[in-house]
Amino acid sequence: EYMGAARMIERSKPAKLNLGGMHVHDDAIVSVCHSITSTSFVGLNLSDNQITEKGVKRLSSTLQEHDCYLTKLALSDNRCGNSGAQHIACALRHPNCKLTELYLSRTSITDIGATALCDAMKTENCQIKVLWLSGNRIGDQGAQEIASTIQHTNCKLQVLWLNGNIIGDAGVGFFANAFRNRLCQLNRIYLSENRISDKGATLFAEILVTSCAIRLLALSGIAWTHHIFFSHSISHSTQTSHHIT
């Protein structure tokens, strides 16, 4: 039934399969996986469905097949959890996996799941450049793992969404140190709606006015005094091209 509606398939080359909000459950994933490999889709949107760790495990197996060409996978607003993140991480390590964009916002991932994904991104085979992890329960420990990962020589991550997690000033400290590393390829990070205070904002301000590759830093919706942040950065505004929101 999921494959029958023409509107689900974006008629463009390369083809993308859009099943977002279609009440897809674990039992239907077998059919979805068959369509992925038989039609050579490069994009798959499964956001806002009823997929659990069981369905993600099946998807993970498909991502490791030689005839799977997916480069973009959206699983936001499902019930993947840490186990689902671990299954995805397993696929990312495989030489056949071609994913470059992964969307896992609001999927009940904690530091455990974040660590699994980080371990995968440190491997040579992982090609992830864009990662969405907003609206989860990732804290300072997860931030530490991510910060370590973006300094790794194999990590290719360029855009990271972490809005609406529970990252505090300690996590900001880990990121600030990571941004100084020349191996870090990250240039956009979104950290709005976390637990970052004036102390954390000051750390970011200091790093932004030094040698830092970050070009967009989103920090809206956090509890800090705006003048503290800008008092550190405004005098250097003519020397940098950072976009702060």
Brief write-up:
This protein has 245 residues and is α/β, with parallel strands linked by helices.
Write down the overall geometry: globular
Strand order of the biggest β-sheet: 1-2-3-4-5-6-7-8-9-10
User: Total helix count?
Assistant: 8
Integer average pLDDT: 87
What amount of the residues lies in strands? 5-15%
Uncertain ranges: 2-7, 224-242
Structural class: alpha/beta
Please specify the SSE layout and strand pairing:
Elements: E1 9-10, E2 16-18, H1 29-39, E3 43-45, H2 53-63, E4 72-74, H3 81-92, E5 101-103, H4 111-121, E6 130-132, H5 140-149, E7 159-161, H6 169-179, E8 188-190, H7 198-208, E9 216-218, H8 226-233, E10 243-244
Parallel strand pairs: 2-3, 3-4, 4-5, 5-6, 6-7, 7-8, 8-9, 9-10
Antiparallel strand pairs: 1-2
Helix pairs in contact: 1-2, 2-3, 3-4, 4-5, 5-6, 6-7, 7-8
Quickly list its features.
11% strand, disordered N terminus, 245 residues, 10-stranded mixed β-sheet, alpha/beta, 35% helix, globular
